[in-house]
Design a protein that fits this description.
Elements: H1 3-12, H2 16-19, E1 49-50, H3 64-91, H4 97-126, E2 136-137, H5 139-142, H6 150-178, H7 182-209, H8 215-221, H9 239-244, H10 249-257
Parallel strand pairs: 1-2
Helix pairs in contact: 1-3, 3-4, 4-7, 6-7
Length: 271
């Protein structure tokens, strides 16, 4: 299947079957659509994105409703990643072999995100809820129009959002495991392990593209306002996970020590 057709199916399909379309191989014969724009990815009314500020539940995950709210948020992040990666596959160039290799890596990561969404969604079903039973935040998608280049996409998606999810997925895995919810904990473990490879994808290509610049400077150069490195981490910062993702120690320590007015909510005692 042509990569642009695959991406269009995800972005313009209203239902989850379109978003989760199973494709195991893409080709690059059709030109990318670099002038394509979309205010929001198409979604049915049940799963429509909202501009409202949506609060993540502060613990009490032993209560099914609170657990379902958390799973709804996790699943939405995965679906947004699918849609943002589809947009990247559609609009960024693939003339050179290096550009094709980047897109093939992105295609593989997108398929992981589809898998993660399915895991979260099915877990919601297990406890009597459906994806979309709670409002769905649009924050991630609103960053997409700013990402004009693959470098900007990697800075935001791989080295910020997915890097932060290393910390969050690991944290919530421990929370749910301590509560005795092994099914949810095991899903978060899968997400955490896959996330390492997704961060590694961005790190590998940013290292290629940065030329003689250091990664920290290049990352910040490609990180659009109002995002900052403060969003690239959770409260519990996992250095070893980032090393596994092949980020260099200097970059890891710069992210770890970075502070500004953005504060990660203290989740230490959430259960």
């Amino acid at each position: 299947m042509e990569v642009v057709d695959f991406a269009r199916k995800i972005l313009l399909g209203m239902d989850l079957d379109s978003k989760l379309f199973d494709c195991d191989k893409v080709e690059f014969n059709k030109a990318p659509e670099n002038d394509f724009s979309l205010a929001y990815p198409a979604r049915s009314s049940k799963i429509k994105l909202s501009e409202k500020q949506i609060k993540f539940p502060k613990g009490h995950f032993h209560i099914d409703e609170k657990k379902a709210q958390a799973l709804n948020s996790f699943a939405n992040h995965e679906l947004l990643a699918v849609e943002m990666m589809a947009m990247a596959l559609l609009i960024y160039p693939h003339e050179t072999e290096d550009q094709k290799r980047f897109k093939l890596g992105l295609f593989k990561a997108l398929r992981d995100e589809q898998k993660h969404f399915n895991l979260y969604s099915k877990r919601m079903n297990d406890i009597g809820y459906e994806f979309g039973d709670f409002p769905l935040n649009d924050f991630f998608w609103k960053q997409m129009p700013k990402l004009k280049t693959p470098e900007q996409f990697c800075a935001v998606m791989s080295l910020t959002f997915e890097a932060a999810n290393l910390d969050f997925a690991h944290f919530y895995e421990k929370v749910f495991r301590e509560l005795g919810d092994i099914k949810t904990a095991n899903i978060l473990k899968v997400v955490y392990e896959d996330e390492i490879s997704h961060v590694q994808l961005g790190a590998r290509f940013m290292e290629r593209w940065k030329q003689d610049k250091d990664l920290w400077s290049y990352y910040n150069q490609n990180l659009p306002w109002p995002l900052t490195p403060a969003r690239a981490k959770g409260k519990l910062f996992l250095e070893e996970a980032r090393r596994k993702a092949r980020l260099d120690d200097e970059f890891i320590q710069k992210v770890k020590g970075y502070k500004d007015e953005f504060k990660v909510t203290n989740r230490k005692d959430w259960k």
